[in-house]
Amino acid sequence: MNYREEVIKAMAMLARDKRPIFIGQSVRYSGHAMFNTLEEAKVPMRKRIELPVFEETQLGMSTGLALEGYIPVSIYPRMDFLIIAMNQLVNHLDKIEQMSCKRFTPKVIIRTMVGSKAPLDGGPQHTQDYYKALRLMLTNIDIVKLIKAEEIITAYRKALGSERSTILIEMADLY
Amino acid sequence: MNKQELIDFEEDIKDLFLDGKIRAPIHLSRGNEEPLIEIFKGIQPEDWVFSTHRSHYHALLHGIDPEWLRQEILAGRSMHIFSRKHRFLSSSIVGGCLPIALGVATAIKRKGTKRHVWCFVGDMAAETGVFHECTKYAARYNLPVSFVVEDNGLSTNSPTQLVWGRGKGNPHITRYKYKRSFPHIGAGKFVVFK
Predict the structure, then answer these.
(1) Superfamily assignment of B3-177 in CATH?
(2) Rounded to two decimals, what is the model's pTM?
(3) Which CATH topology does A3-174 take?
(4) Who among B103, B107, B184 is closest to A60 (CB)?
(5) How far does the CA of residue A109 sit from the closest CA of chain B (Å)?
(6) Is the ipTM of this complex over 0.85?
(7) Nearest CA in chain A to B93
């Protein structure tokens, strides 16, 4: 079973559902490995929102889209980039249910990746794994590290069906 | 709700707080009743309203029941007023609601529905990077969102414009343009490492 091919199947599965919308930089234009998976999964362009580089705003927008009924698949091609959005992740998406006494329960699927170290090493700002740190900070968001190819589709399917937001961490070295 | 009713509500909350009946921070409004009443004449009941830590007036003018709001405040939730029925949310992080409001507006435009989004921020929030990003994006995509800056000149107790060094211009930025010749990453071909 091939890791990358399973990711592509998972994206195709998400795209078949009418609610998900793929959002981030390089979701309509090439630029990173995750774009290629959307292309090969044939995710329709109408289901993709290309954004500027504004990670914090991207995550807030994802929350807003979720409040209106979409399931955003918010793409951060490196975990190093996701931590730029910590305010919206920790103070807002993770806390809205608690702050609102469950009156609002926005659900976002966050897709991110630990950058590869071989054959090219992206260095300290493109290869970090903040899985444990996120587990310590987040109380209302599930976090899944995708280590094995066979768990990928199940994990994305579970995220799609869950009532909670989920962060799915892909491993570039396994692509 | 009229001006006097707004003032009376905040006076009641003030008294409750001073009597030790509210065991959480409160942020009271006073003096901005008239402009807010005017602004809310343009806000429809079905519109989304995003507020801040100082949200009592916004909630009341958006139609939230005063007694319900009073109970929320007594329960210690003055900084977190949320109503699904009224599409009303707040954040106590400076500028925290800005991108969320932007996302709701994006969704509304995609759906083609008639609702509008209103996002209230203070004058320090209006100086932040996220405000710049959200207002620029909203304007360029013609999203159904309006941002209202409530400018009392203060951020907590810091004079906002003085802190930002008003009127000094910015001699620290140099910009030049060029056209990229290489792709974003690499050199245009896959490399096979041996």
Answers:
(1) Thiamin diphosphate (ThDP)-binding fold, Pyr/PP domains (3.40.50.970)
(2) 0.95
(3) Rossmann fold (3.40.50)
(4) B103
(5) 15
(6) yes
(7) A91
